[in-house]
Structure formats: C-alpha cells, structure tokens
C-alpha cells in the first residue's frame, strides 16, 4: 500500500514539470482585448519607411527576406480592420514577418488585408514563441473586408510569449498589409514566476508524501 502514495507523488511532480512545455491556443476577436490592452498603429510614419529592423511602440520588426520587401504606406486604404498608414509588402511576400515584443503577453492580434477580393481559407498564420520555444500556431481565413480580402487575426495562449512570426498566403495574393496590432495579458494566465513557485511547492509536497510512505 505504501507504493500508492509514492506513485501519486511521482505522477504529480512529473505532470507539473512538463506543464510549461505545453500550451493551448485559441482564436479570439477584437473583443478579447480589454481596456488595458496595447494598440500599435503606424500613423504618422513616412511613406516608404523600411520595416525590416523598424521599432514601433517597443516592437521590433524583422522580415526574413530582408530590406526592400516590406514598407510603411497607405496600402489598400481604409478597410474594416486597417487604415493608412500600415505595413505593406511591395516585393517578395512569401517571407516571415517576425515581431519581437517588448515583454511577455498572452493575447495578440492584428488587422490584415490581401491583394485579392475573394475568400481565402488560410490567408494568414500566427506562430508564437517564448524565447526559442514554439508555443503554438493558428491560421485564419480572409474574406472581402469589405472589398479586399482580409479581417482580424487574434490568438490567445495559456503560456506567455514574447515573439510572433506572421506569414501571409503568397499563392492567393501578391501582396499583404497589416495594421492595428493589439497585445494584452489575460488575468487568468499565470506569470512565469507563479508557475515556478507552484511547481516548487508541489515538488516539496510530493517529496513529503514519499518520505512518509517509506517510514
């Protein structure tokens, strides 16, 4: 009978130990970003400003295909989710746009548009990272918004992340645009320090159960 507490303690500590490597991600709309959310726009930036290496509101933008492919300008004009100025691809658009955030968040989103006027099932994809750890990803459909294909792409993770990689469907459209980047941290997502404290506390509890079972 003494083996049962020991096995329960081992299972408890093992389960807690792997929790930080697992995340659940869900799609969210603009309503998921409350009053404390941060909104990043590109209003007032000059036409033609290079995006690769640009920092706006603490966010560092990098484009995998290098300079000369993604700039700031008026893009498709006003849609339901973007407005001048915005980030627009003017060259090769099959690259990865990486956003390094100024701090860890749990919720991220943006308005987007493609140079197309028909529905696109997988118009854009978001992939999240916590440092070098891949947290999860989701793809989003685009629809006329109201003319150009687009919409809002929002994601929430049970683990905090600080880097985001965005891609756009280069087969369905020769150009993309994005604007109105939103970030926030949901109140129900534990901070990393809280998770470490919980893990340590449960590990101590497991050790006590183990010692009692052996006495």
Automatic annotation (TrEMBL):
<dbReference type="Pfam" id="PF07589">
    <property type="entry name" value="PEP-CTERM"/>
</dbReference>
<keyword id="KW-0732">Signal</keyword>
<dbReference type="InterPro" id="IPR013424">
    <property type="entry name" value="Ice-binding_C"/>
</dbReference>
<feature type="signal peptide">
    <location>
        <begin position="1"/>
        <end position="23"/>
    </location>
</feature>
<protein>
    <recommendedName>
        <fullName>Ice-binding protein C-terminal domain-containing protein</fullName>
    </recommendedName>
</protein>
<feature type="domain" description="Ice-binding protein C-terminal">
    <location>
        <begin position="189"/>
        <end position="212"/>
    </location>
</feature>
């Amino acid at each position: 009978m003494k083996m049962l507490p020991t096995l329960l303690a081992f299972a408890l500590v093992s389960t807690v130990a792997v929790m930080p490597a697992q995340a659940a991600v869900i799609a969210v709309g603009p309503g998921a970003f409350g009053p404390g959310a941060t909104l990043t726009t590109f209003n007032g930036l000059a036409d033609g400003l290079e995006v690769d290496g640009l920092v706006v509101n603490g966010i560092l933008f990098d484009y995998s295909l290098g300079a000369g492919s993604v700039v700031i300008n008026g893009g498709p004009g006003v849609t339901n989710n973007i407005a001048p100025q915005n980030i627009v691809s003017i060259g090769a658009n099959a690259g990865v746009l990486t956003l390094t955030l100024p701090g860890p968040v749990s919720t991220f989103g943006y308005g987007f548009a493609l140079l197309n006027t028909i529905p696109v099932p997988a118009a854009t994809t978001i992939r999240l990272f916590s440092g070098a750890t891949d947290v999860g990803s989701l793809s989003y459909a685009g629809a006329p918004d109201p003319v150009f294909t687009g919409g809002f792409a929002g994601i929430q993770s049970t683990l905090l992340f600080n880097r985001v990689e965005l891609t756009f469907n280069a087969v369905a459209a020769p150009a993309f645009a994005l604007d109105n980047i939103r970030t926030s941290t949901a109140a129900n997502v534990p901070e990393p320090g809280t998770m470490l404290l919980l893990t340590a506390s449960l590990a101590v509890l497991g050790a006590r159960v183990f010692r009692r079972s052996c006495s």
